[in-house]
Design brief:
It is built from no helices and eleven strands. By secondary structure, the chain is mostly beta strands. Strands 2, 4, 5, 6, 9, 10 and 11 form a seven-stranded mixed β-sheet that branches. It is globular.
Amino acid sequence: QVQLVESGGGLVQPGDSLRLSCAASGRTFSSNAMGWFRQAPGKEREFVASISRSAISTRYADSVKDRFTISRDNAKNTVYLQMNSLKPEDTAVYYCAGRYSISISTSALEYVYWGQGTQVTVSP
């Protein structure tokens, strides 16, 4: 079974950048599409970004497009989320997730393993 551990969250000011990392254990990581989701207090978990097994395909939520970049290093079993030009509305717990498929998905229901989450707070 694959386990995911996120890191890199923190408290930043509007306009700052952060890079989240998600380290995976297990040999199936390189075969799986990965995604990032987030959940703000009182809100449902929402899709942020997804990347295919080979990193050829990526998809982003409209709210983060052109500001966030998802990437992966299969040799290191790690997926990243580079977040630039952060806004207060980006404040949330960010979760890394994986699915047993090579192709991307925006639906949380299609992801079968999840990390514990890392808090990102954007505040003046």
